Every structure is written in structure tokens, then in C-alpha cells.
Amino acid sequence: MATIVKKIKLQIPGGKATPAPPVGTALGPAGVNIGQFVTQFNDATKDKMGTIIPVELSVFDDRTFTFIMKNPPASRLILKALGIEKGSLKPKKDRKAGTLTKAMIDAIVAEKMPDLRANSPEAAANLIKGTAQSMGVDVE
After folding, report:
1. CA-CA to 61 of 20 to 30 Å: which in 13, 27, 67, 134?
2. How far is CA 107 from CA 14, 48, 71, 111, 131, in A?
3. What single string gives the DSSP state of each residue in 26-49?
4. What pairs with residue 78 in β-bridges?
5. How is residue 114 annotated by DSSP?
6. pLDDT for 18-36, tens place per residue?
7. Residue 104: which region, alpha, beta or left (left: phi > 0; alpha: psi -120 to 50)?
8. Rounded distance, CA 55 to CA 27, Å?
9. Is residue 90 domain-shared with residue 113, that is, in the same domain?
10. Number of structural domains in the chain
């Protein structure tokens, strides 16, 4: 049985992984077949084109690998829900990036819940609200 020799965490746009940095520079030293990873990742994420997907890659001593895809970061989900490119440049002073409604927060919690360290949907909603406020987004 192969043993895990390295764990690598990456955030890659869905369906757009290439052997160029940051993928190549992270996987090359670990001895992973970069082309094989790129092909498998792009095939698995072609329905999430362009969305940032966190990946946890486990590399084994025989140079094989497995990877687990997580949900996009909460900040990306908030931006997507509001339909904006980025949050406020001065979140403490200008809260003008947008307003997140309870329905939007509930939708983000439903998608992100498996990856959050929260015991209840209410606790998860508070985490999402905190992230939104740090981005300069108002919360209803």
C-alpha cells in the first residue's frame, strides 16, 4: 500500500488548469505527472468554468496522486451572489460594495456548509456575514 509523502493545497480556476505556474511549480518538485493532474482536474471541473476551486492533493510514494475538490471560498461566493468583481477598497469606511440579503446568505451557507467549521446553519451564516462585512458588503 502506498503512503502519502506530501499534501499540496492549490486554488485553481475550474476547467482552466495549465502546467504553467502555480500548478507546475507546486506539483513538479513532488514528482507528480502534471499533465495527468491538469487533464483530470479540467475534466472534473468543466461545469464550473472560471470559478476558483480549492484542491487538496495527496501525493503517494509511488508518485501517484489523488485530489479532493472543495467548494469555492466564501468571498468568491459572496462576489458571485452580488454580481461584482471585488469588494470595497476601504471596508471600514466605505461599505458600498453591495448588500447581501438573507436569501443570498442562506444560498451561500447551503453550498459552503460541508467545508465550514460550523455546528449549525446559524453559525455558518454568521461566518458568511463576517466575511461579507470584511469585504465592505452590507448585510441585511
Report:
1. 13
2. 20, 17, 13, 6, 15
3. HHGGGT--HHHHHHHHHHHTGGGT
4. none
5. G
6. 888 888 888 888 888 999 9
7. alpha
8. 12
9. yes
10. 2
Instruction: Region of 63 please: left (phi>0), alpha (psi -120 to 50) or beta.
Output: left
Read out DSSP for 9-29?
A: EEEEETT---SSTTHHHHHGG
- How far apart are alpha carbons 87 and 98 in whole angstroms? 8
Q: Provide the mean pLDDT of the chain.
A: 87
pLDDT tens-place string over residues 95-138: 677 888 899 999 999 988 888 888 898 999 999 998 888 888 88
d(CA 11, CA 66): 16
Domain's final residue, options 48, 69, 90 = 69
CATH code where residue 122 lies: 1.10.10.250
State whether 82 and 62 are in the same domain. no
Q: Which of 82, 8, 10, 77 is nearest to 48 (CA)?
A: 77
Domain that holds residue 18: 4-69
Same domain, 50 and 30: yes
Residue 94 and residue 47 share a domain:
no
Q: Distance from CA of residue 15 to its chain's centroid?
A: 14
